[in-house]
Amino acid sequence: MEERDRLAKIIESENLTAKQFAEEIGVSAGTISNILGGRNKPSVEIYVRILNRFRTISSDWLMLGTGSMYRPNGGITQATLFGDMRPNDVPQQTSEPAQPVQHYTVQNPAPQPAPAKQIARIIIYYTDGTYEER
Questions:
Q1: Is residue 53 part of a domain?
Q2: What are the beta bridge partners of residue 125?
Q3: Which residues pair with 79 in a beta bridge?
Q4: Would 106 be classed as within a structural domain?
Q5: pTM
Q6: Is 75 inside any structural domain?
Q7: CA distance 125 to 123
Q8: What is the distance between the alpha carbons of residues 78 and 41, in angstroms, rounded to a whole number?
């Protein structure tokens, strides 16, 4: 199943028109029309917008075409690079004491003086078009 077919399936499953779907994810109707028509492929930004709006859609299914369309457990949890996360979850308080923050000071080395400049050559141009190099 191609990317455009997966988008069409989401639109159908959510009982939306292509224009309503575009409004839901915050893109122009023309963008969705071009994807559904096969003229363009969805960008990463489109995928992110879809996954942010439709939290139960599986990212593996949407982007790679693998697995089922919906996340297991109705999208309550999903493994991410940062571990399991729940949509709209507020981090829980822990009973462990907080570790003190260590502060580090970065010291820049003292600026080195620039080496003394020396004259390498002098060129004198004359009005008759000649020049002299010293």
A1: yes
A2: 131
A3: 84
A4: no
A5: 0.54
A6: yes
A7: 7
A8: 25
Least confident of 4-18, 44-58, 104-118: 104-118
Please count the structural domains in the chain.
1
Contact 125, 131 (CB under 8 A): yes
Q: At what angle do helices 18-25 and 44-53 cross, to 10 degrees?
A: 90
Task: Return d(Cα 90, Cα 85) in angstroms, integer.
Answer: 10
Q: What is the DSSP string of 110-131?
A: PPPPPPPP-----EEE-TTS-E
* pLDDT single digits (tens) 22-49: 999 999 999 999 999 989 999 999 999 9
The enclosing domain of 26 has a CATH number of 1.10.260.40
Domain that holds residue 40: 3-85
* Cβ proximity of 57 and 69 under 8 Å: yes
Query: Does the residue 118 lie in any domain?
Result: no
**Torsion angle of C-alpha atoms 48, 52, 54, 55, degrees rounded to 10:** 110
